[in-house]
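Hi P.,

Sorry for the delay on this. The queue was packed all week, but I finally got your sequence through. Input first:
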Amino acid sequence: MPDVDVANTGILPAGGPGWQERVKGRVQESLQGSLQERLQERVGAARSGSEATAWARRRIVTGALVRGDAAAVLAACAGSLLVMAAAGALPGLAPATLAGWCALQIAALALCGLYGPIEAEPIERLRRRGLAAALAFGAAVLVGGSPSPWLWTAAGIAALLSIPFGHYAEGFVRARLVRRGVWGAATIVYGQGAAELARSLAARPELGLRPVGIVREPVSGLEPFRAAAPSGPAEEEGGAERMAELLATAEVALCTPGEREPGRFAWLTRHPFRQVIVAHQAPEVETVRLQTRCLGPIVGLVVRRAIFLPHNLRLKRAVDLAVTLPALILFGPLIGVLALAVKLADPGPAFYVQPRVGRDGRTIRVYKLRSMFRDAEARLAGHLAADEAARREWDRFCKLRDDPRVLPGIGGFIRRTSLDELPQLLNVLRGDMSVVGPRPFPAYHTERFGPAFQALRASVPPGLTGLWQISARSDGDLAVQEQQDSFYIRNWSIWIDLYILLETVPAVLTAKGAR
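Then the structure:
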């Protein structure tokens, strides 16, 4: 029995229905006696079973990820061949060549840590996926001799396509594994604010830490989540066993911000967790890839500001043009059809120009398809004056769920799908905006933020899509908008832009959080 009380959080089970039985069966089949003995010698008999269970869980996760990536690589090869066929230069590929390329890609992904025991968060995984694609292509060039240049072209296209295809395949696999309760390392959380941190991790399973219990002092009286207090000797004994079992299943121990009690840290040394994470409350340095520096007895956190470097701004502009020019050709006919539908719904201009706050606080003219009545402002003022609940909603979100300004039919459709924003590709082409960045808001919206955040927001180009659009969108209030835009600006990299672009597609198709 541990010297602390471990309560089941009740927010995430240790596994999906029947998962423990399936894992135990696989462990018994796969573990030989010698391995079991080594585990018991290394971590003790009480821990060896949980170590084997964790190993089996990782094997399930890795197997599912490998199968998803294999399907993505094959789909990328098919896409590459279609592109080459359209160009009239279809290279001949033997089945062995295709299998070899698939194996090479999977090996590169493994080498870049995509199948590691602690699953990295999605943006970092996307960066590693891009690195793996480049590594696989480079290895193929080095060992492949000198075949037809068309074959190398096809391999390069396949490597590029494997990045988005693999990202979407991984998202599909991760969602299934989360539902089964096997994605992420089983995590014990302890310290001040453990309940809040556990809830946060449970709400974001993609981070790879699955809270299964909270460590607490037996005398604290704290009752986090659904932990039931024992009421009799038999129940006390059963409760102790459950607590010990819960503690033994944990792969990771997470110490919350504010916990500095030496005795609690000493508790960690008596339990062989695979990883111990000491959390720090530092929203001003919230980062995807944290860098540290040794400053003697002090740990220094390196705050990156990559988006302000001139060469990165040039790179971002190059990506903007590479995305915008083909998009204008592709979506030009669609914009024309939607403009005609708007005119049929409400005679008048199909497009309108709205002044919004751009970089350095200057006013930019943003193009949009008109989704509202021509007298929209008068309709809004009358509605807010007559409906106090709508007034409160407007004050919090600067948006309304039932907006009287929106055109029936076509107006709601183009707003839900964000198709009304397509004309802003012209703003990107002009350099007023970027493809990815904080959304340009009207002055009345921007003025609701504090001066410091207004200055931070104005230091970068506004975007056609952003982190807010792929997550909370209109469901996020001003505080959420500030947190997400600050995170983007402080963590900018070409990979976070690519991640947002890829996630924009399902966000638009599902109209997530749109109003």
